[in-house]
Protein backbone atom coordinates (compact mmCIF):
# COMPACT_ATOMS: atom_id res chain seq x y z
CA UNK A 1 0.00 0.00 0.00
CA UNK A 2 1.45 3.34 -1.07
CA UNK A 3 1.04 6.26 1.29
CA UNK A 4 -0.57 9.34 -0.21
CA UNK A 5 1.02 12.73 0.12
CA UNK A 6 -1.34 15.23 1.68
CA UNK A 7 -1.25 18.88 2.66
CA UNK A 8 -3.51 21.24 4.54
CA UNK A 9 -2.90 24.98 4.76
CA UNK A 10 -4.27 27.06 7.62
CA UNK A 11 -4.63 30.81 7.95
CA UNK A 12 -4.74 32.68 11.25
CA UNK A 13 -5.65 36.35 11.58
CA UNK A 14 -5.05 36.53 15.33
CA UNK A 15 -8.71 37.28 16.01
CA UNK A 16 -10.65 34.14 15.21
CA UNK A 17 -9.85 30.44 15.06
CA UNK A 18 -7.44 29.24 12.36
CA UNK A 19 -9.21 28.24 9.14
CA UNK A 20 -8.46 25.73 6.40
CA UNK A 21 -7.41 27.67 3.30
CA UNK A 22 -6.15 24.81 1.11
CA UNK A 23 -6.30 21.05 1.23
CA UNK A 24 -5.31 18.30 -1.14
CA UNK A 25 -3.64 14.97 -1.78
CA UNK A 26 -0.98 13.72 -4.17
CA UNK A 27 -0.26 16.27 -6.95
CA UNK A 28 -2.41 18.98 -5.35
CA UNK A 29 -0.60 18.42 -2.04
CA UNK A 30 2.75 18.78 -3.80
CA UNK A 31 1.57 22.06 -5.36
CA UNK A 32 0.36 23.39 -1.99
CA UNK A 33 3.71 22.51 -0.41
CA UNK A 34 5.68 24.04 -3.30
CA UNK A 35 3.69 27.28 -3.09
CA UNK A 36 4.18 27.40 0.69
CA UNK A 37 7.93 26.85 0.34
CA UNK A 38 8.18 29.52 -2.36
CA UNK A 39 6.30 31.98 -0.11
CA UNK A 40 8.56 31.18 2.84
CA UNK A 41 5.74 29.58 4.83
CA UNK A 42 6.86 27.17 7.53
CA UNK A 43 5.77 23.59 6.96
CA UNK A 44 4.95 21.22 9.81
CA UNK A 45 4.87 17.53 8.98
CA UNK A 46 2.44 15.54 11.10
CA UNK A 47 0.52 12.79 9.29
CA UNK A 48 -2.00 12.34 12.13
CA UNK A 49 -2.83 16.05 12.27
CA UNK A 50 -3.00 16.22 8.49
CA UNK A 51 -5.37 13.22 8.38
CA UNK A 52 -7.72 14.97 10.80
CA UNK A 53 -7.50 18.36 9.07
CA UNK A 54 -8.23 16.72 5.70
CA UNK A 55 -11.75 16.03 7.01
CA UNK A 56 -12.48 19.76 7.31
CA UNK A 57 -13.99 21.81 4.49
CA UNK A 58 -12.26 24.83 2.94
CA UNK A 59 -12.97 27.89 5.07
CA UNK A 60 -13.93 25.78 8.08
CA UNK A 61 -12.45 26.74 11.44
CA UNK A 62 -10.17 24.34 13.29
CA UNK A 63 -12.21 22.59 16.03
CA UNK A 64 -11.75 23.70 19.62
CA UNK A 65 -10.19 20.33 20.46
CA UNK A 66 -7.17 21.30 18.33
CA UNK A 67 -6.77 24.90 19.59
CA UNK A 68 -3.93 24.09 22.00
CA UNK A 69 -1.96 22.08 19.43
CA UNK A 70 -2.41 24.70 16.70
CA UNK A 71 -1.60 27.52 19.17
CA UNK A 72 1.65 25.78 20.09
CA UNK A 73 2.56 25.43 16.40
CA UNK A 74 1.76 29.10 15.71
CA UNK A 75 3.80 30.19 18.76
CA UNK A 76 6.72 28.04 17.64
CA UNK A 77 6.58 29.49 14.13
CA UNK A 78 6.51 33.04 15.54
CA UNK A 79 9.62 32.21 17.57
CA UNK A 80 11.36 30.80 14.48
CA UNK A 81 10.60 34.12 12.79
CA UNK A 82 12.08 36.03 15.76
CA UNK A 83 8.72 37.30 17.00
CA UNK A 84 8.19 37.29 20.77
CA UNK A 85 5.51 38.79 23.02
CA UNK A 86 6.45 42.19 24.47
CA UNK A 87 5.81 40.81 27.96
CA UNK A 88 8.85 38.59 27.63
CA UNK A 89 11.12 41.66 28.00
CA UNK A 90 13.74 40.15 25.72
CA UNK A 91 13.70 36.86 27.66
CA UNK A 92 14.64 35.11 24.41
CA UNK A 93 17.88 37.13 24.31
CA UNK A 94 18.68 36.05 27.88
CA UNK A 95 18.12 32.42 26.91
CA UNK A 96 20.40 32.73 23.86
CA UNK A 97 23.13 34.39 25.95
CA UNK A 98 23.18 31.55 28.49
CA UNK A 99 23.53 28.81 25.90
Automatic annotation (TrEMBL):
Origin: domain of life: Bacteria
Protein function = Required for formation of the rod structure in the basal body of the flagellar apparatus. Together with FliI and FliH, may constitute the export apparatus of flagellin.
Record protein name field: Flagellar biosynthetic protein FlhB
Matching InterPro entries, A to Z?
A: T3SS_substrate_exporter, T3SS_substrate_exporter_C
Checking Gene3D superfamilies in the record gives: secretion proteins EscU
Q: Which GO terms describe its cellular component?
A: plasma membrane
Q: Per the UniProt entry, what are the Gene Ontology biological process annotations, in alphabetical order? A: protein secretion
Q: Which organism is it from?
A: Shewanella denitrificans (strain OS217 / ATCC BAA-1090 / DSM 15013)
Recorded family membership? Belongs to the type III secretion exporter family.
Q: What UniProt keywords apply to this chain's record, in alphabetical order? A: Bacterial flagellum protein export, Protein transport, Transport
Amino acid sequence: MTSRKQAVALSFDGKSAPKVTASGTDLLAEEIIALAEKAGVHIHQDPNLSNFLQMLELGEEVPKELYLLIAELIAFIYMLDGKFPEQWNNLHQKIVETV
